[in-house]
TrEMBL record:
It holds the Pfam family MITRAC7_Phoenixin. This is Small integral membrane protein 20. GO terms for biological process: mitochondrial respiratory chain complex IV assembly. GO terms for cellular component: mitochondrial inner membrane. Residues 47-70 are annotated as: Disordered.
């Protein structure tokens, strides 16, 4: 086997391992976000956002809706 073929197999193997490692973390949530949204909603249901907001900042709101205080 030539050096060029070994190098190609090595790089291809590295890319395949990297893709296999990143799939469940990056690609799967982008393709099917519903389970992740449901998991976040369930995990955060008992948290009062105003009590854990740092520095007296406002809780996140939709940037396209008008603010109620203006």
């Amino acid at each position: 086997m030539s050096t060029k073929a070994k190098t190609t197999l090595l790089i291809g193997g590295f890319v395949a391992c990297l893709g296999a490692a990143l799939y469940p973390v990056v690609i799967s949530p982008m393709l099917n976000p519903k389970p992740w949204k449901d998991l976040q909603k369930d995990a955060r249901k008992n948290i009062d956002q105003t009590s854990v907001q740092p520095g007296g900042m406002r809780v996140w709101s939709d940037p396209f809706k008008p603010r109620p205080d203006k």
